[in-house]
Amino acid sequence: MTLLVLDDLVATLDGAALLRGVNLRVAQGEIVGLVGESGSGKSMTALAIMQLLPERTASTGQILFGGRDLTQTAEAAMCAIRGRDIGLIFQEPMTALNPLKTVGDQIAESFMLHEGLAYAEALDKTRAAMDRVGLADIPATRYPHELSGGQRQRIVIAMAIACRPKLIIADEPTSALDVTTQAQILDLLRSITRESGAALLLISHDLAVVASMADRIAVMKDGRIVEEGATRSFFGAMRDPYAHALYEASVHRPARQPMMNKTAPFFVAENCTRLYRKPSLFRADPQPLRAVDHVSLALSPGESVGLVGESGSGKSTLARALLGLDPLDQGTLTLDGVVLDPARKQDRLRLRRKVQLVFQDPYSSFDPRRTIGWSMTEALGHLTEPVSESDKARRVAALLEQVGLAPDFAGRFPHEMSGGQRQRAAIARALMTDPELIVLDEPVSALDVSIRARILDLLADLQAQHSVTYLFITHDLTLLRAVTDRTLVMQKGKIVEEGPTARLLDEPQHPYTQALVAASPDLPAHVAGLQSDV
């Protein structure tokens, strides 16, 4: 039985087309994956179904839900449908949750509004809803900031399914989660739909996630559905060039030469330990948290090394320690044979000149009030010998061209650039001081797959030109296989396994590594399995 029908749905905002004749059907109990890159219209489709399109948006076409046209439904009636009949799971739970209310109160609100329950009765049902999403041990009196990312996402799911809706819309529900938490959330969504018979519209830019979940896949581009079909036959029957390109970008591996003869390491971290102590009113010396626990690593020139682990494993804390941004409680850093003390200004400047960082979110790493050129040259005034303004301008222009940007981008502000352009500018900024090591902290996780593929190609080209060493910090095992020679696996502040990337991913030895590999979606393997079954 067909539950949802989008029939020639068109939406425009101030004359600009958002949706261009979208046609889509979702049957009762079916999981449909809606895939596309940023700006393709995926989230606008979800907002149109919920009748939450931005003001000044004009729309035509039909949205039939259980035979009722939602485009002709009054707002009061839509308020009754939202949450009761259609549940929406947002991408970022921290923005979807009220920071001033407990998570229990926020779930209970659905029962009070849609089922007319008293507060005490609603809290009883809230407890059952939290148990249903795997939060039996979490008190309903917690606030959002007191929960982990995975726990917050489970709360958002509990809110969406509280009244057992007929349709669940999940908008990028796992994009900010590590692989094991992502696998848990996807398993949860799958089990909820199977148990309740609800339909699920799963919106994502990750083709691997959708392929592992959906009964049918629809690919969206420029506000249109350009390819659609049953998952079992979808990948062997793709006709649209964009759908092909999306698949190729999802499995893309940059052309790079793996390191064959490893030379002596130039950067060595030995026995590094970083402690965090939470203040306590009851104990003078509370037990410290070992965020980094006796970690040692050595990096050679031109090598690409991966550092993988779940959120909270200590990856980013270790990166800050390697950059001299966080003090070490124990251990030493050696650069080019010289033992450094980051507490000394001279050693700290030497470390920051030779070791640079590319952040996950380039927008927040740039000063929004300064041009890209100013941000790139800022480091030269602190970390190198004095450089003339004309030499600075030439170096900025040369590096921008190396990363595929025109020299006039130096005069732009961060908000005037796309996400991919900002990440290219961040890489150019990192190269300004001729570093020996660049630490890349989730450098492509926030990017669309086609932009991601181009950034990975760029990094491979730059490594070949500059012989720079990369330390990739990520939770994406597919990325590790594509761009690294060697990988270190981190759990609870310790390195639990280390070795050549291919061997480590194909034959993991440590149980934690095995769990990471098992939880990571593998698109080529999944497609091969589907085609062998056809």
Structure description:
- The chain has 534 residues and is an alpha/beta fold.
- It has 2 domains: 2-250, Rossmann fold (3-Layer(aba) Sandwich), CATH 3.40.50.300; 267-276 and 287-527, 3-Layer(aba) Sandwich (Rossmann fold).
- 39% of the residues lie in helices and 25% in strands.
- The protein is built from 22 helices and 20 strands.
- A 6-stranded mixed β-sheet has the order 6-7-8-3-9-10, sandwiched between helices. A 6-stranded mixed β-sheet has the order 16-17-18-13-19-20, with helices on both faces. It has a 4-stranded antiparallel β-sheet with strand order 2-1-4-5, with helices on one face.
- α4 (103-115) runs parallel beside α6 (149-161) and α10 packs across α18.
- The longest helix has 18 residues, at 179-196.
- The radius of gyration is 25 Å and the shape is globular.
- It starts with a strand and ends with a helix.
- The relative contact order is 0.10.
- The model has no long low-confidence stretch (mean pLDDT 89).
Report the sheet-strand fraction. Answer: 15-25%
Note the total helix count: 22
Examine the secondary-structure arrangement and name the CATH architecture of the largest domain. Answer: 3-Layer(aba) Sandwich
Instruction: Please tell me the total number of domains.
Output: 2
Specify the overall morphology. Answer: globular
The CATH class of the largest domain is: Alpha Beta
Estimated radius of gyration: 25 Å
For the residues shown, what is the average pLDDT? 89
Helix percent reads: 25-40%
